[in-house]
Amino acid sequence: MHRLTRDEARRIAVRAQLLDADRPGGIVEVAEQLGAIKIDPTATIAPAEQTIPWTRIGWSYEPGQLKKAVEDDRQLFEHAGQFRPASLLPLMAARMRGRELRASTVEYLDANARFRRDITRRLQKEGPLLASDIPDTSVVQRSNESGWYGSNQVPRMLDLLEAIGEVAIVGREGRLRRWDVTERAWPANLPAPGYDEAERMLEARRLQALGIARRKTSWSGVGDAGEPAEVEGSAWKWRVDPEALAALDDDPGGRVAILNPYDRMLFDRPRLAELFEFDFVLEQFKPKAQRRYGYFAHPILIGDRFVGQLDAELDKKKENLVVTAVHEMIPFDDEEREMVDAEIRDLAEWIGVPVVFASGRA
User: Fold this and answer.
1) Sign (positive/negative) of CA torsion 171, 149, 45, 303?
2) Is residue 165 part of a domain?
3) Which residues pair with 178 in a beta bridge?
4) I need a labelling partner for 357 at 20 to 30 A (CA). Which of 18, 81, 220, 231 fits?
């Protein structure tokens, strides 16, 4: 049983997410360590799939590097709203093909067996294609309780076929996904681990991305990967990545990081509260009058402490980054304020615009 101070646990978590002073060299290195880069169209500053790498890499990262890694070099692949490293594809393919479907999903697929064949045959013959290039020949429509789908069943069927490994996303035209059959999208010699073995290996990769996580929780999915640990002041049962633990004394120090709200570092909200004492709430879906920090505020990390949130938005017409407020949840000293300002300026310069402070800080 490893016994860690809260400071040590936070440092492990920060370093695992590549948010310390030792910056990674490129987009593939980021994806390999994080395991997944979230794709989201909300772009008050820039889309998540671009700000997440920039927050790690810094100045040397250019948005075109992501597209090249996915579509040209095939070092990354898109699945279920995330970009992932190619090294995870064999494990995820095993899980996809062994997935147990709900009875209602099986009924939908059975009722639309011809529709399913129409899609895969068209992709085999004409692919890659956009969903809009494929006619809807469905017999049965599925209810749209989630609100994510319209009446056209093609996007829904494509998402289902992606989930079970029959089709894959091979690129994008703007925000639109291009689809193909996996026999062409995936390497022909893809290794095929067993379902349970693949899940164990995925649990280890999830823990690698987090450094330290609660043993049994749906937020992290690390299972029994790594080694057991206790954290000072916490009653939770933790698992820690042994490689992260071994590197604890080799600490490069901290820095300022501005995180997109969909950043992997923020996903496990209970862990954020337990380790960092940071209760992060995405206010995007709150009524305006109930927002405290802003529609899409970006948390600010200094070292291993979440100290504030940046409320800013790119004004495309005036071509500047308008900073409504830098909310100081923990009062900044002069040096910290200067460091945060420098990171905001770097962010603005990266997207190619000047900074305008609309109303100072709050």
Assistant:
1) negative
2) no
3) 130, 171
4) 18
Entry field: residues in the chain: 362
Residue 251: what pLDDT? 83
Domain tally for the chain?
1
pLDDT at 147: 65
Mean pLDDT of the chain: 95
Distance, CA of 33 to CA of 10 (rounded, Å): 17
Residue indicated by tokens 């164990």: 200
Q: Kindly report each contact of residues 109-118 with a partner whose C-beta sits within 8 Å and lies 24 or more positions away, as own/partner.
A: 109/160, 111/139, 111/140, 112/138, 112/139, 112/140, 112/153, 112/157, 114/139, 115/139, 115/153, 115/157, 116/157, 116/161
Domain that holds residue 336: 256-357
Task: Tell me the C-alpha to C-alpha distance, in Å, between residue 163 and each of 102, 147, 194, 228, 318.
Answer: 12, 19, 17, 32, 42
Task: Specify if 341 maps to a domain.
Answer: yes
Name the one residue in this structure whose structure tokens are 């291993």: 304
How many CB atoms are located within 10 Å of the residue 66 CB? Answer: 23
Using one digit for the tens of pLDDT, what is the confidence trace for 206-230? 999 999 999 888 889 999 999 999 9
CA triple 54-175-39, angle to 5 deg: 40
Residue 98 has which token pair? 């062994």
